[in-house]
Amino acid sequence: MVAKGVDKLIQDLEKLYHEQETCDVVFVVGSEEVRLWAHRIILKARCGSFQNVERGDVCNIQGVTVTSSSSSIITIRWPNAKPNVLKQVLFYVYCTKIDFQDVDIFEILALSLELGVEDLKEPCIEYFNNNLRFENACTYLAASLELDNRLNASKKNPFVEQCASYVGKYAAECFQTSSFLELPKEALVHLVSSDSLALEEEKVWRSVLNWARHRTGIDQPLCEWNEEHKSQIRQELSGIIEHIRILLIDSQVFAEEVEPTGAVPIEMSLERYRIAALPNKFAHPDDRRRVPRISDRTFQESFLLNGGNIHFQRILSEWYGSPKQSWRLLYRASTNGFSASAFHEHCDNYSPTFVIISGHNGDLCGGFTDIPWSTPREMRGCYIISERSFLFTLINRENQPPTKFDVVKKRLAVVHHQDYGPCFGGGADLAIYDNCDANMESYSNLPHSYDGQGASNTILMGEYNFFVKDYEVFTISRNVS
Protein backbone atom coordinates (compact mmCIF):
# COMPACT_ATOMS: atom_id res chain seq x y z
CA MET A 1 0.00 0.00 0.00
CA VAL A 2 2.89 2.40 0.77
CA ALA A 3 4.46 1.84 -2.65
CA LYS A 4 1.14 2.54 -4.40
CA GLY A 5 0.75 5.69 -2.33
CA VAL A 6 4.24 6.90 -3.35
CA ASP A 7 3.52 6.24 -7.02
CA LYS A 8 0.27 8.21 -6.79
CA LEU A 9 2.06 11.06 -5.00
CA ILE A 10 4.66 11.30 -7.76
CA GLN A 11 1.89 11.30 -10.39
CA ASP A 12 0.15 14.17 -8.57
CA LEU A 13 3.39 16.12 -8.26
CA GLU A 14 4.04 15.66 -11.97
CA LYS A 15 0.63 17.18 -12.70
CA LEU A 16 1.48 20.03 -10.37
CA TYR A 17 4.76 20.56 -12.21
CA HIS A 18 2.82 21.25 -15.42
CA GLU A 19 0.21 23.56 -13.78
CA GLN A 20 1.46 27.08 -14.41
CA GLU A 21 -1.76 28.60 -13.01
CA THR A 22 -0.90 27.65 -9.40
CA CYS A 23 2.79 28.61 -9.59
CA ASP A 24 4.16 31.53 -7.60
CA VAL A 25 7.80 31.45 -8.78
CA VAL A 26 9.10 32.08 -12.29
CA PHE A 27 12.71 31.52 -13.30
CA VAL A 28 13.84 33.79 -16.15
CA VAL A 29 16.74 31.84 -17.58
CA GLY A 30 19.61 32.49 -19.97
CA SER A 31 20.18 35.28 -22.47
CA GLU A 32 16.89 34.47 -24.18
CA GLU A 33 15.03 34.86 -20.88
CA VAL A 34 13.11 31.61 -21.09
CA ARG A 35 10.45 31.42 -18.37
CA LEU A 36 10.16 28.30 -16.23
CA TRP A 37 7.48 28.11 -13.52
CA ALA A 38 7.56 26.49 -10.09
CA HIS A 39 5.94 26.47 -6.64
CA ARG A 40 7.82 28.12 -3.81
CA ILE A 41 6.60 25.58 -1.25
CA ILE A 42 7.98 22.71 -3.37
CA LEU A 43 11.30 24.50 -3.84
CA LYS A 44 11.52 25.22 -0.11
CA ALA A 45 10.84 21.56 0.72
CA ARG A 46 13.25 20.10 -1.81
CA CYS A 47 16.03 22.63 -2.46
CA GLY A 48 18.65 23.59 0.10
CA SER A 49 19.17 27.01 -1.48
CA PHE A 50 15.55 27.90 -0.56
CA GLN A 51 16.01 26.76 3.04
CA ASN A 52 17.67 28.50 5.97
CA VAL A 53 17.80 31.84 4.14
CA GLU A 54 17.93 35.16 5.94
CA ARG A 55 14.64 36.80 6.80
CA GLY A 56 13.12 38.47 3.77
CA ASP A 57 15.25 36.51 1.28
CA VAL A 58 13.78 33.94 -1.07
CA CYS A 59 16.84 31.89 -1.96
CA ASN A 60 20.59 31.77 -1.77
CA ILE A 61 21.84 31.16 -5.32
CA GLN A 62 24.94 32.92 -6.58
CA GLY A 63 24.41 35.09 -9.66
CA VAL A 64 20.61 35.45 -9.49
CA THR A 65 18.41 38.49 -8.87
CA VAL A 66 15.05 38.15 -7.14
CA THR A 67 12.07 40.49 -7.48
CA SER A 68 8.44 40.27 -6.39
CA SER A 69 5.39 41.60 -8.23
CA SER A 70 2.09 42.90 -6.91
CA SER A 71 0.50 39.60 -7.89
CA SER A 72 2.80 37.80 -5.44
CA ILE A 73 4.78 36.19 -8.26
CA ILE A 74 8.47 35.89 -7.39
CA THR A 75 10.78 36.38 -10.37
CA ILE A 76 14.25 34.81 -10.22
CA ARG A 77 16.54 35.93 -13.03
CA TRP A 78 19.29 33.40 -13.64
CA PRO A 79 21.32 34.48 -16.70
CA ASN A 80 24.06 31.85 -16.32
CA ALA A 81 21.69 28.86 -16.25
CA LYS A 82 20.69 26.91 -19.33
CA PRO A 83 16.91 26.56 -19.79
CA ASN A 84 16.92 22.90 -20.88
CA VAL A 85 19.12 21.97 -17.94
CA LEU A 86 17.08 23.83 -15.33
CA LYS A 87 13.91 22.32 -16.78
CA GLN A 88 15.27 18.81 -16.16
CA VAL A 89 16.44 19.67 -12.65
CA LEU A 90 13.07 21.18 -11.72
CA PHE A 91 11.31 18.08 -13.04
CA TYR A 92 13.55 16.02 -10.75
CA VAL A 93 12.68 18.30 -7.82
CA TYR A 94 9.00 17.48 -8.31
CA CYS A 95 9.13 13.85 -9.48
CA THR A 96 12.61 12.46 -8.60
CA LYS A 97 13.02 11.47 -12.26
CA ILE A 98 15.50 12.81 -14.78
CA ASP A 99 16.39 12.23 -18.43
CA PHE A 100 20.07 12.79 -19.18
CA GLN A 101 19.58 12.56 -22.94
CA ASP A 102 20.82 15.66 -24.80
CA VAL A 103 21.73 17.36 -21.51
CA ASP A 104 25.28 17.93 -20.23
CA ILE A 105 25.64 15.89 -17.05
CA PHE A 106 28.06 18.43 -15.61
CA GLU A 107 25.55 21.24 -16.16
CA ILE A 108 22.94 19.09 -14.44
CA LEU A 109 25.25 18.52 -11.48
CA ALA A 110 26.25 22.19 -11.29
CA LEU A 111 22.65 23.44 -11.24
CA SER A 112 21.56 20.77 -8.79
CA LEU A 113 24.37 21.74 -6.39
CA GLU A 114 23.58 25.44 -6.80
CA LEU A 115 19.92 24.74 -6.07
CA GLY A 116 20.86 22.46 -3.21
CA VAL A 117 19.24 19.32 -4.66
CA GLU A 118 21.75 17.00 -3.01
CA ASP A 119 19.98 13.73 -3.84
CA LEU A 120 20.39 14.36 -7.58
CA LYS A 121 24.13 13.79 -7.18
CA GLU A 122 23.68 10.01 -6.92
CA PRO A 123 21.88 9.53 -10.29
CA CYS A 124 24.48 11.84 -11.88
CA ILE A 125 27.30 9.65 -10.57
CA GLU A 126 25.51 6.48 -11.72
CA TYR A 127 25.01 7.90 -15.21
CA PHE A 128 28.63 9.04 -15.29
CA ASN A 129 29.95 5.61 -14.27
CA ASN A 130 27.79 3.85 -16.85
CA ASN A 131 28.91 6.12 -19.68
CA LEU A 132 32.61 6.74 -19.03
CA ARG A 133 34.57 5.45 -22.04
CA PHE A 134 38.03 5.81 -23.59
CA GLU A 135 36.52 8.14 -26.19
CA ASN A 136 34.94 10.61 -23.75
CA ALA A 137 37.14 10.35 -20.65
CA CYS A 138 39.31 13.35 -21.55
CA THR A 139 36.25 15.41 -22.44
CA TYR A 140 34.69 14.47 -19.10
CA LEU A 141 37.90 15.44 -17.27
CA ALA A 142 37.98 18.88 -18.90
CA ALA A 143 34.30 19.41 -18.13
CA SER A 144 34.68 18.30 -14.51
CA LEU A 145 37.62 20.70 -13.98
CA GLU A 146 35.55 23.51 -15.48
CA LEU A 147 32.74 22.56 -13.10
CA ASP A 148 35.22 22.70 -10.22
CA ASN A 149 36.11 26.28 -11.13
CA ARG A 150 32.44 27.20 -11.29
CA LEU A 151 31.38 25.73 -7.95
CA ASN A 152 32.06 27.18 -4.54
CA ALA A 153 34.78 25.38 -2.61
CA SER A 154 32.08 24.13 -0.22
CA LYS A 155 30.31 22.24 -3.01
CA LYS A 156 32.13 18.96 -3.63
CA ASN A 157 32.62 17.88 -7.25
CA PRO A 158 32.84 14.07 -7.25
CA PHE A 159 34.12 13.70 -10.81
CA VAL A 160 37.59 15.27 -11.12
CA GLU A 161 39.63 12.56 -9.42
CA GLN A 162 37.46 9.80 -10.83
CA CYS A 163 38.05 11.08 -14.37
CA ALA A 164 41.77 11.54 -13.76
CA SER A 165 42.05 8.06 -12.25
CA TYR A 166 40.27 6.50 -15.23
CA VAL A 167 42.43 8.36 -17.78
CA GLY A 168 45.54 7.44 -15.80
CA LYS A 169 44.58 3.79 -15.70
CA TYR A 170 43.77 3.65 -19.42
CA ALA A 171 46.24 6.30 -20.57
CA ALA A 172 47.46 4.30 -23.58
CA GLU A 173 43.90 4.11 -24.92
CA CYS A 174 42.67 7.57 -23.87
CA PHE A 175 45.71 9.39 -25.24
CA GLN A 176 44.98 8.00 -28.71
CA THR A 177 41.57 9.68 -28.90
CA SER A 178 40.68 12.98 -30.49
CA SER A 179 39.31 14.19 -27.16
CA PHE A 180 42.84 14.02 -25.70
CA LEU A 181 44.09 16.41 -28.37
CA GLU A 182 41.31 18.84 -27.45
CA LEU A 183 42.20 18.94 -23.75
CA PRO A 184 42.69 22.42 -22.30
CA LYS A 185 46.12 23.01 -20.77
CA GLU A 186 44.77 22.91 -17.19
CA ALA A 187 43.45 19.39 -17.72
CA LEU A 188 46.67 18.17 -19.34
CA VAL A 189 48.73 19.54 -16.44
CA HIS A 190 46.40 17.73 -14.04
CA LEU A 191 47.15 14.46 -15.83
CA VAL A 192 50.90 14.68 -16.41
CA SER A 193 51.57 15.89 -12.87
CA SER A 194 49.99 12.71 -11.52
CA ASP A 195 51.89 9.66 -10.29
CA SER A 196 49.09 7.41 -11.55
CA LEU A 197 49.61 7.57 -15.29
CA ALA A 198 50.01 4.14 -16.86
CA LEU A 199 52.57 5.09 -19.51
CA GLU A 200 56.31 4.94 -19.88
CA GLU A 201 57.78 8.44 -19.66
CA GLU A 202 58.81 8.32 -23.33
CA LYS A 203 55.17 7.75 -24.27
CA VAL A 204 54.03 10.52 -21.93
CA TRP A 205 56.40 12.87 -23.76
CA ARG A 206 55.26 11.75 -27.23
CA SER A 207 51.61 12.14 -26.27
CA VAL A 208 52.16 15.64 -24.87
CA LEU A 209 54.13 16.62 -27.97
CA ASN A 210 51.30 15.36 -30.21
CA TRP A 211 48.92 17.52 -28.18
CA ALA A 212 51.12 20.57 -28.69
CA ARG A 213 51.51 19.88 -32.42
CA HIS A 214 47.75 19.62 -32.75
CA ARG A 215 47.29 22.94 -30.94
CA THR A 216 49.84 24.71 -33.14
CA GLY A 217 48.97 22.97 -36.41
CA ILE A 218 52.58 21.85 -36.91
CA ASP A 219 52.58 18.67 -38.98
CA GLN A 220 56.13 18.77 -40.39
CA PRO A 221 58.66 16.16 -39.19
CA LEU A 222 60.86 17.33 -36.34
CA CYS A 223 63.93 17.45 -38.61
CA GLU A 224 62.19 20.14 -40.71
CA TRP A 225 61.25 22.46 -37.85
CA ASN A 226 62.52 26.03 -37.92
CA GLU A 227 62.89 28.41 -34.98
CA GLU A 228 59.29 29.59 -35.32
CA HIS A 229 58.03 26.00 -34.95
CA LYS A 230 60.19 25.49 -31.87
CA SER A 231 59.00 28.76 -30.37
CA GLN A 232 55.35 27.76 -30.83
CA ILE A 233 55.88 24.34 -29.25
CA ARG A 234 57.86 25.87 -26.39
CA GLN A 235 55.04 28.30 -25.70
CA GLU A 236 52.38 25.56 -25.73
CA LEU A 237 54.39 23.35 -23.39
CA SER A 238 55.21 26.14 -20.95
CA GLY A 239 53.80 25.05 -17.59
CA ILE A 240 53.62 21.42 -18.76
CA ILE A 241 57.24 20.51 -19.47
CA GLU A 242 58.05 20.85 -15.76
CA HIS A 243 55.80 17.86 -15.07
CA ILE A 244 57.44 15.59 -17.66
CA ARG A 245 59.92 13.37 -15.83
CA ILE A 246 62.73 13.86 -18.33
CA LEU A 247 65.19 12.19 -15.94
CA LEU A 248 63.41 8.90 -16.69
CA ILE A 249 63.48 9.25 -20.47
CA ASP A 250 65.98 7.04 -22.27
CA SER A 251 69.13 8.98 -23.24
CA GLN A 252 68.83 8.21 -26.94
CA VAL A 253 65.15 9.18 -26.98
CA PHE A 254 65.97 12.39 -25.13
CA ALA A 255 68.76 13.29 -27.58
CA GLU A 256 66.75 12.43 -30.71
CA GLU A 257 63.14 13.31 -29.82
CA VAL A 258 63.04 15.66 -26.84
CA GLU A 259 65.94 18.08 -26.88
CA PRO A 260 65.66 19.00 -30.60
CA THR A 261 62.15 20.41 -30.02
CA GLY A 262 63.63 23.26 -27.98
CA ALA A 263 60.87 22.77 -25.39
CA VAL A 264 63.19 21.76 -22.54
CA PRO A 265 64.87 24.68 -20.74
CA ILE A 266 68.65 24.50 -21.01
CA GLU A 267 69.11 24.13 -17.24
CA MET A 268 66.85 21.05 -17.24
CA SER A 269 68.82 19.50 -20.11
CA LEU A 270 72.14 20.12 -18.37
CA GLU A 271 70.82 18.67 -15.13
CA ARG A 272 69.66 15.56 -16.95
CA TYR A 273 73.06 15.04 -18.56
CA ARG A 274 74.85 15.54 -15.21
CA ILE A 275 72.64 13.00 -13.45
CA ALA A 276 72.91 10.50 -16.32
CA ALA A 277 76.71 10.79 -16.28
CA LEU A 278 77.25 10.84 -12.51
CA PRO A 279 74.11 9.61 -10.75
CA ASN A 280 75.85 8.97 -7.43
CA LYS A 281 77.06 12.56 -7.31
CA PHE A 282 74.12 14.56 -8.66
CA ALA A 283 71.00 12.40 -8.20
CA HIS A 284 69.00 12.97 -5.03
CA PRO A 285 67.40 9.72 -3.76
CA ASP A 286 64.12 11.49 -2.89
CA ASP A 287 63.80 13.35 -6.20
CA ARG A 288 60.21 12.68 -7.32
CA ARG A 289 61.22 13.26 -10.94
CA ARG A 290 63.20 10.01 -10.82
CA VAL A 291 60.28 7.96 -9.49
CA PRO A 292 58.57 5.97 -12.26
CA ARG A 293 54.87 6.56 -12.59
CA ILE A 294 52.67 3.73 -11.47
CA SER A 295 48.99 3.22 -12.14
CA ASP A 296 46.27 1.34 -10.30
CA ARG A 297 46.74 -1.37 -12.92
CA THR A 298 49.52 -2.76 -10.73
CA PHE A 299 46.80 -4.24 -8.48
CA GLN A 300 44.01 -3.66 -10.97
CA GLU A 301 41.30 -5.78 -9.38
CA SER A 302 41.89 -4.82 -5.76
CA PHE A 303 39.02 -3.54 -3.63
CA LEU A 304 41.29 -2.93 -0.64
CA LEU A 305 43.92 -0.89 -2.51
CA ASN A 306 41.47 1.40 -4.24
CA GLY A 307 40.14 4.91 -3.74
CA GLY A 308 42.00 6.64 -0.92
CA ASN A 309 44.27 3.59 -0.52
CA ILE A 310 45.49 3.55 -4.12
CA HIS A 311 48.87 5.06 -3.25
CA PHE A 312 49.71 1.90 -1.27
CA GLN A 313 50.01 0.05 -4.59
CA ARG A 314 53.20 1.92 -5.35
CA ILE A 315 54.61 1.14 -1.91
CA LEU A 316 53.96 -2.61 -2.22
CA SER A 317 55.45 -2.77 -5.71
CA GLU A 318 58.54 -0.89 -4.54
CA TRP A 319 58.93 -3.27 -1.60
CA TYR A 320 58.73 -6.14 -4.07
CA GLY A 321 61.54 -4.47 -6.02
CA SER A 322 59.81 -3.58 -9.29
CA PRO A 323 57.57 -0.46 -9.20
CA LYS A 324 56.07 -1.29 -12.61
CA GLN A 325 55.12 -4.86 -11.78
CA SER A 326 51.52 -5.83 -12.54
CA TRP A 327 49.66 -8.15 -10.12
CA ARG A 328 46.73 -10.46 -10.81
CA LEU A 329 44.00 -11.28 -8.29
CA LEU A 330 43.93 -14.95 -7.29
CA TYR A 331 41.49 -14.82 -4.41
CA ARG A 332 39.21 -12.50 -2.49
CA ALA A 333 37.70 -13.89 0.72
CA SER A 334 34.44 -11.94 0.44
CA THR A 335 33.97 -13.39 -3.07
CA ASN A 336 35.51 -16.86 -2.87
CA GLY A 337 34.81 -17.70 0.78
CA PHE A 338 36.66 -17.18 4.06
CA SER A 339 37.48 -20.85 4.65
CA ALA A 340 41.07 -22.08 4.68
CA SER A 341 40.16 -24.60 1.98
CA ALA A 342 38.91 -21.79 -0.29
CA PHE A 343 42.22 -19.98 0.15
CA HIS A 344 44.23 -23.08 -0.69
CA GLU A 345 41.98 -23.96 -3.63
CA HIS A 346 42.67 -20.60 -5.28
CA CYS A 347 46.22 -19.85 -4.11
CA ASP A 348 48.17 -23.11 -3.81
CA ASN A 349 51.09 -23.52 -6.23
CA TYR A 350 51.29 -19.81 -7.04
CA SER A 351 54.29 -17.58 -6.30
CA PRO A 352 55.21 -14.95 -5.52
CA THR A 353 52.11 -13.68 -3.73
CA PHE A 354 50.97 -10.60 -1.84
CA VAL A 355 48.35 -11.10 0.88
CA ILE A 356 46.43 -7.91 1.76
CA ILE A 357 44.20 -8.02 4.86
CA SER A 358 41.55 -5.58 6.06
CA GLY A 359 40.24 -5.35 9.63
CA HIS A 360 36.91 -4.00 10.85
CA ASN A 361 38.58 -0.98 12.48
CA GLY A 362 40.29 0.16 9.28
CA ASP A 363 43.56 -1.72 9.78
CA LEU A 364 45.28 -2.70 6.53
CA CYS A 365 48.22 -5.08 6.60
CA GLY A 366 49.53 -8.27 5.04
CA GLY A 367 52.49 -10.25 3.88
CA PHE A 368 54.59 -11.22 0.88
CA THR A 369 56.23 -14.53 0.08
CA ASP A 370 58.20 -15.87 -2.86
CA ILE A 371 57.28 -19.45 -1.88
CA PRO A 372 54.21 -21.17 -3.43
CA TRP A 373 51.41 -21.99 -0.97
CA SER A 374 50.44 -25.64 -0.48
CA THR A 375 48.17 -27.87 1.61
CA PRO A 376 50.11 -30.56 3.51
CA ARG A 377 48.34 -33.91 3.36
CA GLU A 378 50.29 -36.12 5.75
CA MET A 379 50.86 -33.63 8.57
CA ARG A 380 48.90 -30.80 10.13
CA GLY A 381 51.40 -28.16 9.09
CA CYS A 382 54.99 -27.48 8.11
CA TYR A 383 57.46 -24.59 8.07
CA ILE A 384 58.87 -23.38 4.75
CA ILE A 385 62.19 -21.56 4.29
CA SER A 386 62.19 -18.19 2.53
CA GLU A 387 64.85 -15.51 2.04
CA ARG A 388 62.51 -12.79 0.74
CA SER A 389 59.25 -13.01 2.68
CA PHE A 390 58.11 -9.99 4.68
CA LEU A 391 55.12 -8.64 6.58
CA PHE A 392 53.84 -5.07 6.38
CA THR A 393 51.45 -2.56 7.87
CA LEU A 394 49.80 0.09 5.69
CA ILE A 395 47.14 1.49 8.04
CA ASN A 396 47.26 0.92 11.79
CA ARG A 397 45.77 2.40 14.95
CA GLU A 398 49.19 3.52 16.18
CA ASN A 399 49.50 5.96 13.27
CA GLN A 400 52.80 4.39 12.24
CA PRO A 401 53.56 5.03 8.55
CA PRO A 402 53.64 2.09 6.10
CA THR A 403 56.35 -0.24 7.37
CA LYS A 404 57.91 -3.48 6.14
CA PHE A 405 58.93 -6.20 8.62
CA ASP A 406 61.60 -8.45 7.12
CA VAL A 407 62.00 -12.14 7.88
CA VAL A 408 64.75 -12.76 10.46
CA LYS A 409 64.21 -16.49 11.08
CA LYS A 410 64.20 -17.64 7.48
CA ARG A 411 63.64 -21.34 8.18
CA LEU A 412 60.31 -20.38 9.84
CA ALA A 413 59.27 -17.85 7.21
CA VAL A 414 55.97 -19.37 6.09
CA VAL A 415 53.63 -21.98 7.55
CA HIS A 416 51.56 -24.29 5.33
CA HIS A 417 48.61 -25.69 7.27
CA GLN A 418 45.27 -27.10 6.16
CA ASP A 419 43.35 -25.30 8.94
CA TYR A 420 44.87 -21.91 8.12
CA GLY A 421 44.87 -19.56 5.18
CA PRO A 422 48.06 -17.50 4.79
CA CYS A 423 50.33 -17.98 7.80
CA PHE A 424 53.69 -16.28 8.31
CA GLY A 425 56.38 -17.16 10.87
CA GLY A 426 56.78 -19.48 13.78
CA GLY A 427 54.71 -18.18 16.59
CA ALA A 428 52.95 -17.10 14.33
CA ASP A 429 53.76 -13.53 13.38
CA LEU A 430 50.56 -13.42 11.29
CA ALA A 431 48.08 -16.27 11.03
CA ILE A 432 44.70 -16.19 9.25
CA TYR A 433 42.47 -18.96 10.55
CA ASP A 434 39.67 -20.95 8.90
CA ASN A 435 36.47 -18.85 8.51
CA CYS A 436 38.37 -15.84 9.79
CA ASP A 437 35.41 -13.47 9.36
CA ALA A 438 33.32 -15.38 11.93
CA ASN A 439 35.84 -16.05 14.73
CA MET A 440 38.81 -14.47 16.48
CA GLU A 441 41.20 -17.40 16.05
CA SER A 442 43.36 -15.34 13.67
CA TYR A 443 46.25 -13.71 15.51
CA SER A 444 49.55 -11.84 15.28
CA ASN A 445 52.58 -12.68 17.45
CA LEU A 446 54.91 -10.19 15.79
CA PRO A 447 57.87 -9.91 16.40
CA HIS A 448 59.04 -13.51 16.28
CA SER A 449 60.22 -14.69 12.88
CA TYR A 450 59.80 -11.16 11.46
CA ASP A 451 60.98 -7.86 12.90
CA GLY A 452 61.34 -4.18 12.10
CA GLN A 453 60.68 -0.69 13.40
CA GLY A 454 57.63 -0.56 15.65
CA ALA A 455 57.04 -4.32 15.50
CA SER A 456 54.52 -5.51 18.10
CA ASN A 457 51.63 -7.95 18.36
CA THR A 458 49.15 -5.07 17.90
CA ILE A 459 50.72 -3.10 15.06
CA LEU A 460 49.15 -5.18 12.27
CA MET A 461 45.49 -5.47 13.37
CA GLY A 462 45.28 -3.46 16.57
CA GLU A 463 45.06 -6.50 18.84
CA TYR A 464 46.55 -9.96 19.26
CA ASN A 465 43.41 -11.85 18.14
CA PHE A 466 41.16 -10.32 15.52
CA PHE A 467 38.30 -10.74 13.06
CA VAL A 468 39.10 -10.32 9.36
CA LYS A 469 36.84 -8.06 7.33
CA ASP A 470 38.27 -9.17 3.98
CA TYR A 471 41.54 -10.23 2.41
CA GLU A 472 42.94 -10.56 -1.10
CA VAL A 473 45.80 -12.55 -2.61
CA PHE A 474 47.68 -11.44 -5.74
CA THR A 475 50.34 -13.07 -7.88
CA ILE A 476 52.43 -11.71 -10.74
CA SER A 477 50.44 -10.96 -13.86
CA ARG A 478 53.12 -9.77 -16.22
CA ASN A 479 56.42 -7.94 -16.08
CA VAL A 480 56.31 -4.43 -17.44
CA SER A 481 59.49 -3.60 -19.30
In terms of DSSP E residues, the strand content is 15-25%
Helix content: 25-40%
Largest sheet: 7 strands, antiparallel
Strand order of the largest sheet: 5-17-6-7-9-10-15
Alpha carbon gyration radius: 29 Å
What's the mean pLDDT score? 89
* Broad shape: flat
Number of helices: 18
Question: Could you give the distance between the termini?
Answer: 63 Å
The residue ranges in which pLDDT falls below 50 over 5 or more consecutive positions are: none
Helix-strand category: alpha+beta
Write up what this structure looks like:
- This protein is α+β, with helices and mostly antiparallel strands.
- It has 18 helices and 17 strands.
- It starts with a helix and ends with a strand.
